[in-house]
Write a structure and sequence with these properties.
Layout: H1 2-32, H2 34-44, E1 49-51, E2 55-68, E3 71-82, E4 85-101, E5 104-120, E6 127-133, E7 141-148, E8 151-152, E9 156-157, E10 161-167, E11 173-185, E12 187-190, E13 197-208, E14 223-226, E15 231-242, E16 246-249, H3 256-285, H4 291-311, H5 317-340, H6 342-362, H7 370-389, H8 394-411
Parallel strand pairs: 1-12, 4-13
Antiparallel strand pairs: 2-3, 2-6, 4-5, 5-11, 6-10, 7-8, 7-11, 9-10, 12-16, 13-15, 14-15
């Protein structure tokens, strides 16, 4: 009996090593190409966006007096004066659309941005230059609108910004309206400045077409309303001093590569419970299950994870999981039918495999509940086994096996 248990343990260790290698291979395939794939997505779609408020500035000519060699000289210099932003009214619509590259899903989105900004000309000059810094350099901007008090502005474009100059009388206010449609990746942000900034009379309304909203180290909305397909969020401040930004992170879709890798790394736990139950049942019933039989059972379990790892490249993770489960169960049932009979194969073995391979693996689909589900399953298994074996005299069982082996040896 000890030799049999040792042989089963060696098979289990070898299977564990195979799963570790498979899991490492899946993670390597997933993350080694992640940077290249993400760069490809950014090139085709757009980069994460961080929109800053536009600026308004006036160039003022100042006289500068200097003394050289005892003589007073007067020169002129240009000084840029930033005009104060008195109010901001912004509307943003985010439309999430996941895209898959390789073994990863990327959270891409469309953004429809519209903002109205009021500036006051506090200088004695009337030539005001308005500048909009684009939220991402690697992105497209369709239907760009840039008007001051309803009048379109002739723009001068640069790599990261666009600007235009209009007349605004000294002491008067001007409303700059900006609008565009663009595309981004993973997260959308709105920043007030690179450092701690003061914001006056600010209102940003954001409509998102997804439920799972997250705010990555940014200001939470002051008001939110749930809609049929997502959320309507609002940030409203009369006077705010903050170094934080406004931001919304797109929800991630279930990632097939990392999920398949985690399921493979967890596989030894599933096999341990299956081997444990098979050993208990066969020992109690006096059934013969040779270590070579355990070896083929381990390979049938391994086929589930191997098939899953390479199916997710071509079909959805749920379809891949279903196909791999069916294939593995057919392998085990058809094999044990020949070894121990149809009844044992279709009842005890099939049910045990469904619980410890399929259900335990499927627990990884429920983020945050995997450990709890496996723990509950393990405790229930322990309870059932303890109840059905509580009256078993294991010394007699093991002695009986040893006597049978001795008799067989003597007869031969």
């Amino acid at each position: 009996m000890l030799k049999r248990i040792t042989a089963i343990f060696v098979i289990f260790i070898c299977a564990t090593a195979a799963w570790v290698i498979l899991g490492a291979t899946i993670f390597a395939r997933t993350y080694s190409s992640d940077s290249a794939l993400e760069d490809h997505v950014v090139t085709n779609w757009g980069a994460p966006q961080n929109q800053a408020p536009p600026s308004a500035a006036v160039q003022i000519t100042k006289k500068v007096e200097t003394i050289e060699n005892g003589k007073k000289q007067t020169t002129t210099a240009q000084e840029t004066v930033q005009l104060p932003l008195e109010s901001s009214r912004i509307n943003v619509a985010l439309d999430l659309a996941h895209r898959q590259k390789g073994l990863l899903w990327y959270s891409t989105y469309k953004v429809d941005f519209a903002g109205a900004y009021t500036f006051r000309n506090t200088t004695d000059q009337d030539q005001v230059s308005f500048t909009l810094n684009f939220p991402a350099e690697r992105a497209i901007y369709d239907d760009l609108q840039f008007t001051v008090d309803g009048t379109p502005v002739t723009l001068t474009n640069a790599a990261k910004s666009t600007s235009g100059t209009v007349k605004v009388a000294p002491g008067q206010t001007a409303t700059l309206r900006i609008g565009y449609r663009s595309q981004g990746l993973t997260v959308w942000r709105y920043s007030f400045g690179s450092e701690v900034s003061q914001v006056r009379d600010f209102d940003l309304k954001l409509r998102a077409n997804f439920k799972d909203v997250d705010f990555p180290d940014t200001l939470s909305p002051t008001d939110k309303q749930e809609t049929a397909d997502g959320w309507e969020l609002e940030w409203n401040y009369k006077s705010l001093v903050s170094g934080y930004q406004i931001g919304v992170e797109m929800p991630e879709k279930l990632q097939p590569g990392p999920l398949a890798g985690r399921i493979s790394m967890f596989a030894p736990v599933s096999l341990f419970f299956f081997f444990f139950l098979m050993f208990i049942i066969t020992t109690m019933r006096g059934l013969e299950l040779h270590p070579m039989n355990y070896f083929f059972l381990a390979t049938a379990f391994f086929s589930f994870h191997l098939l899953l790892a390479y199916l997710v490249d071509h079909v959805s993770i749920h379809t891949s999981f279903a196909i791999s489960s069916v294939v593995s169960i057919i392998l085990v049932v058809s094999y044990l039918r020949l070894v121990l009979g149809t009844r044992f194969a279709t009842r005890e073995a099939a049910i045990a495999q469904f619980i410890y391979l399929v259900l335990f693996s499927y627990a990884f689909f429920f983020k945050g509940f995997t450990g709890l589900a496996v723990t509950i399953g393990s405790i229930l298994t322990l309870f059932v086994v303890m109840q059905i074996t509580g009256r078993v005299r294991w010394a007699e069982k093991f002695a009986g096996k040893q006597n049978d082996v001795a008799k067989d040896a003597a007869a031969s």
